[in-house]
């Protein structure tokens, strides 16, 4: 049986730019078979749109709350966005 696909949109605040946050997020997404994107915003936060199984997205969110070694995550918000149940991304990418 196929796992149910869910979509989550996160906003991450703290010391999350200039510390490799997007690169490490991309690596973790690949590790947990998550598709979507990560990008820096002008307010020094990072946003992530992620699609995957509930189990993998739970692990991914836990990692986002810690971040890579040089970061200091202060807050991870789960944004209220329309939930896609069909896969809309074929891979995980870093947006510029």
Automatic annotation (TrEMBL):
Family: Belongs to the acylphosphatase family.
PROSITE patterns: ACYLPHOSPHATASE_1, ACYLPHOSPHATASE_3
Gene3D superfamilies per UniProt: 3.30.70.100
Pfam families assigned: Acylphosphatase (PF00708)
Protein's name according to its UniProt entry: acylphosphatase
Residue ranges annotated for the Acylphosphatase-like domain, each copy included: 7-96
Keywords, in A-Z order: Hydrolase
Lineage: Bacteria, Pseudomonadati, Pseudomonadota, Gammaproteobacteria, Pasteurellales
Transit peptide is among the record's keywords: no
InterPro entries in alphabetical order: Acylphosphatase, Acylphosphatase-like_dom, Acylphosphatase-like_dom_sf, Acylphosphatase_CS
Transmembrane segments: none
Catalysed reactions, as listed in the record: an acyl phosphate + H2O = a carboxylate + phosphate + H(+)
Superkingdom per UniProt: Bacteria
């Amino acid at each position: 049986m196929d796992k149910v696909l869910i979509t989550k949109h996160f906003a991450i605040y703290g010391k999350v730019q200039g510390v490799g946050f997007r690169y490490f997020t991309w690596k973790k997404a690949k590790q947990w078979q998550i598709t979507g994107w990560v990008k820096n915003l002008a307010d020094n936060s990072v946003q992530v749109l992620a699609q995957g199984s509930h189990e993998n997205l739970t692990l991914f969110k836990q990692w986002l709350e810690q971040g890579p070694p040089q970061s200091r995550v202060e807050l991870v918000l789960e944004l209220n966005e329309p939930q896609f149940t069909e896969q809309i991304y074929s891979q995980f990418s870093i947006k510029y």
